[in-house]
């Protein structure tokens, strides 16, 4: 809703500015995602379309399901590492893959930025929720609940929130960054 209001406000400002140019002929085209005002100069205001947002949510869901499967179906550490590399190549930008490689060289498998080190399992997948962040551009909030243990080994339910920044690379939406993986500040 905020995105549409911002889009309408921006279009209104552009229309006001375009009408002040003089007697230039202007044409306004509008759709869900792009508003174009054409005079001697073309202004384009663009946001992700609903179809793009659905594709991003589906991509993130597929990633988390595959990520879970890799961790829980692999009995061999070398197979797991290869599966994680395949997933990162498919779902992450080249820039982010470089950062992930550096983190792996420093921490090995002891750190999982995608789950804030809480992990994810089949029960967690059932609670997986992915929504667009209302504040940050190209950012999505991935949340789920996972059963874990407290310091006394008592089973507890942990709510996990991860902010994922998505970029388009070579025509595909991919994960470009994980923000604040330990703070859980989705908006």
**What is the third-level CATH name, the topology of the largest domain?**
Nuclear Transport Factor 2, Chain: A
What is the average per-residue confidence, as pLDDT, rounded to a whole number? 78
Query: Could you give the order of strands across the largest sheet?
Result: 4-5-6-7
Poorly predicted tracts of residues? 1-46
Q: How many structurally independent domains?
A: 2
Number of distinct helices: 5
Descriptive report:
The protein is α+β, with helices and mostly antiparallel strands and 187 residues long. It has two domains: 2-46, no CATH class; 50-179, Nuclear Transport Factor 2, Chain: A (Roll), CATH 3.10.450.50. The protein contains five helices and seven strands, in the order αβββααααββββ. The strands form two sheets. It has a four-stranded antiparallel beta sheet with strand order 4-5-6-7. α2 runs antiparallel to α3. The chain is globular, with a radius of gyration of 21 Å. 17% of the residues are buried. Mean pLDDT is 78; it is low at 1-46.
Features:
5 helices; 2 domains; alpha+beta; three-stranded antiparallel beta sheet; Nuclear Transport Factor 2, Chain: A; four-stranded antiparallel beta sheet
Write the layout of secondary structure elements.
Layout: H1 2-19, E1 27-30, E2 34-38, E3 42-46, H2 50-73, H3 77-91, H4 94-107, H5 122-127, E4 129-132, E5 139-149, E6 155-169, E7 172-179
Antiparallel strand pairs: 1-2, 2-3, 4-5, 5-6, 6-7
Helix pairs in contact: 2-3
